[in-house]
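User: Please fill in residues for this 355-position structure.
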C-alpha cells in the first residue's frame, strides 16, 4: 500500500504561456492591450504598506457595493472572487452537487471539465454544430446543472439572449451559469434576467474588458438565494479571498465607466478591421463578439502558422484538440500589434507551399 493511493490526482488545466521576451507581441491569453483606468494607478498610490498588517474585509464590501451600483442590483446579489476562475470553481462546488451530469458544450473553456473532475461532478459535453452554434435541445435533457460561456471561448460566437433564456426557463431545478468573461465586447448580457430567474448565475471578470488580468478579480451576480449559498461555501473555504490591493483597484476600475467604454470600443473597432484583413488573407472564422478571433486558413495548417509566428516573436493560442486543431485563437491587440501580425501572416502565407 502506498500513500499515493489516497491522493486526489487530477490532470490540471494548462493556462496559456506567459513568455516575457523583449519586443514580443502577445496575443495568446486574451488580455487587454491597454492599461487599466488611470484611477487604478491612483488607487495603488493611495495604498499604504502599513495597512497590510490587517486582514482585508472578508465581505469585500466596497467592491461588492461598487459592482451592485454599476449593475443596478442589491449588494446581496453580488459575489466576488480571485478572478472568474475562482468564482466559477466556487460556483461548481456550491451548485453542481447532483448525481445527474452537468452539461456544457464540447468546444468551450477548457477549465470546466477540469473542475468537474476535481470536484468529482459527473458531466456530459454537448456537441456544437459544425458552425459552432449551440443545439438548444441538448440543454433540455435532465441534468445536474448547466454552464455556458457567452460569447463562447475559444470560438467567440455569441448566443442570443432569447435562446439562453429558454434554457434557463426550461431548467428550474438546476443552476444555470452563464460565463460572460467576454460579453463587454459587443455582446448582450443576460444580467437583466437575474431578477426573473432564481436559478441563473452570471459570471464576469475584470481580466479582459477592465484590463486587469494581473489583479485577479472576478464576480458573479444572481438571486440573493444563490449568492447566499455561494458565500456559505466561500466562507467554508477561505474567508479572505480578496486582498486590500484588489479591493482598492477593483473599486477604482468599476467607478471609471468612461474609460471602460473607451477601451472596449477601441478593441471592437480593431477586431472588426482585423476580421476584414484576415478574410483577405484567406482565413475564415466564426463572427466573433469577443476580444479574440478564432481563425482557420483555407490552405495552410494552423499549427504551422502558429510555429512560424512564434519564430517571429508573435504569440497566439493553438489548441491541439479534436475539431479545433486547425484553428488559431488570436487575441485582439492594439492596431499596431495587429498590423505587425498581418504583415507576418502575409510573409508566412506567401512563403508556404500547399499542404
Ligand atoms: N471564463 C472564460 C470563458 C475564460 O476564457 C477565462 C479566461 N481564461 C475565464 C473564465 C477566467 O478568467 P479570469 O480568471 O482571469 O477571470
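Assistant: Residues filled in for all 355 positions:
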Amino acid at each position: 500500500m502506498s500513500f499515493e493511493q489516497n491522493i486526489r490526482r487530477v490532470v490540471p488545466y494548462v493556462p496559456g504561456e506567459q513568455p516575457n521576451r523583449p519586443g514580443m507581441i502577445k496575443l495568446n491569453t486574451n488580455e487587454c492591450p491597454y492599461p487599466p483606468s488611470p484611477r487604478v494607478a491612483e488607487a495603488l498610490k493611495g495604498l499604504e504598506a502599513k495597512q497590510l498588517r490587517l486582514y482585508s474585509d472578508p465581505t469585500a464590501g466596497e467592491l461588492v457595493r461598487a459592482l451592485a451600483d454599476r449593475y443596478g442590483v442589491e449588494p446581496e446579489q453580488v459575489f466576488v472572487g480571485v478572478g472568474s476562475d475562482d468564482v466559477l470553481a466556487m460556483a461548481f462546488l456550491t451548485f453542481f452537487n447532483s448525481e445527474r451530469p452537468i452539461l456544457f458544450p464540447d468546444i468551450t473553456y477548457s477549465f470546466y471539465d477540469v473542475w468537474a473532475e476535481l470536484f468529482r461532478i459527473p458531466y456530459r459535453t454537448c456537441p456544437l454544430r459544425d458552425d459552432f452554434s449551440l443545439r438548444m435541445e441538448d440543454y433540455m435533457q435532465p441534468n445536474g446543472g448547466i454552464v455556458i460561456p457567452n460569447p463562447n471561448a475559444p470560438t467567440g460566437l455569441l448566443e442570443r439572449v432569447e435562446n439562453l433564456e429558454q434554457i434557463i426557463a426550461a431548467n428550474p431545478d438546476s443552476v444555470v451559469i452563464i460565463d460572460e468573461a467576454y460579453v463587454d465586447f459587443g455582446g448582450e448580457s443576460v444580467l437583466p434576467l437575474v431578477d426573473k430567474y432564481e436559478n441563473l448565475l452570471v459570471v464576469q471578470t475584470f481580466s479582459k474588458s477592465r484590463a486587469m488580468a494581473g489583479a485577479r478579480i472576478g464576480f458573479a451576480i444572481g438571486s440573493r438565494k444563490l449568492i447566499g449559498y455561494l458565500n456559505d461555501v466561500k466562507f467554508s473555504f477561505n474567508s479572505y479571498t480578496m486582498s486590500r490591493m484588489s479591493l482598492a483597484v477593483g473599486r477604482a476600475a468599476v467607478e471609471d465607466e468612461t474609460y471602460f467604454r473607451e477601451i472596449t470600443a477601441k478593441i471592437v473597432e480593431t477586431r472588426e478591421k482585423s476580421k476584414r484583413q484576415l478574410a483577405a488573407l484567406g482565413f475564415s472564422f466564426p463572427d466573433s463578439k469577443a476580444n479574440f478571433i478564432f481563425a482557420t486558413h483555407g490552405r495552410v495548417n494552423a499549427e504551422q502558422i502558429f510555429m512560424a509566428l512564434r519564430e517571429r516573436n508573435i504569440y497566439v493560442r493553438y489548441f491541439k484538440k479534436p475539431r479545433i486543431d486547425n484553428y488559431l485563437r488570436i487575441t485582439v491587440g492594439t492596431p499596431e500589434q495587429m498590423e505587425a501580425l498581418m504583415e507576418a501572416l502575409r510573409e508566412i502565407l506567401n512563403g508556404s507551399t500547399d499542404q
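For context: The chain is about 35% helix and 15% strand.
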